[in-house]
C-alpha cells in the first residue's frame, strides 16, 4: 500500500506544507525578488522562505537567477513545470472555499466534545 517507490513520497507540495503553494501563487504573474515574496506572504521567517524556495528549485518548479549587479539581485520565477501546478492549486482553493464551513464546524464539534470529558 505505501511502497517506497510510490510517487506520493516525492510529491512537490505536501498537504502540510503551507508555503510552497503560496510561493507558487506569488510567482504566477512573473519573477519576484526575495523581498517581494516576503511582502504578500508576511508570516514565514527568512529561513523558512529560503528553505521553501530551495525545495521548489530542487524540484524544478522555480528558477533562481542571480544578476551580476552591486548589490547582487536575485529573482525567482516559475518554470513551465511550476506553471502546471497552478490548476492543481486552484482546485484545492475551490475545494476549501466550498468545504471550509463544514470543516470548521466539525473541528468545533470535536473540540467541544473532547473538552467536556
List the keywords:
117 residues, mainly alpha, 3-stranded antiparallel β-sheet, 5 helices, 3 strands, elongated
- Helices, by number, come to 5
Instruction: Report the structural category.
Output: mainly alpha
Shape: elongated
Listing every helix as H and every strand as E from the N terminus to the C terminus, the arrangement reads HEHHEEHH
Look at the structure and give the mean pLDDT.
Answer: 87
What report would you give on this structure?
This protein is mainly alpha-helical. The protein has 5 helices and 3 strands; from the N terminus they run αβααββαα. The chain has helices at 18-26, 34-41, 46-58, 80-83, 85-116; strands at residues 32-33, 62-67, 73-78. A 3-stranded antiparallel sheet has the order 1-3-2. Strand 2 (62-67) and strand 3 (73-78) form a beta hairpin. It is elongated, with a radius of gyration of 18 Å. The chain starts with 17 loop residues before the first helix and ends with a helix. The mean pLDDT is 87.
What's a quick, concise take on this entry?
56% of the residues lie in helices and 12% in strands.
Topology:
Blueprint: H1 18-26, E1 32-33, H2 34-41, H3 46-58, E2 62-67, E3 73-78, H4 80-83, H5 85-116
Antiparallel strand pairs: 1-3, 2-3
Amino acid at each position: 500500500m505505501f511502497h517506497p517507490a510510490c510517487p506520493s513520497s516525492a510529491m512537490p507540495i505536501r498537504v502540510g506544507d503551507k508555503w510552497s503553494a503560496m510561493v507558487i501563487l506569488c510567482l504566477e504573474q512573473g519573477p519576484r525578488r526575495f523581498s517581494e515574496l516576503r511582502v504578500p506572504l508576511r508570516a514565514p521567517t527568512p529561513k523558512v522562505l529560503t528553505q521553501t524556495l530551495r525545495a521548489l528549485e530542487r524540484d524544478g518548479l522555480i528558477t533562481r537567477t542571480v544578476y551580476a549587479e552591486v548589490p547582487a539581485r536575485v529573482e525567482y520565477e516559475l518554470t513551465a513545470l511550476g506553471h502546471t501546478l497552478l490548476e492543481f492549486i486552484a482546485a484545492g482553493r475551490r475545494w476549501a472555499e466550498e468545504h471550509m464551513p463544514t470543516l470548521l464546524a466539525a473541528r468545533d464539534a470535536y473540540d467541544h466534545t473532547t473538552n467536556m470529558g
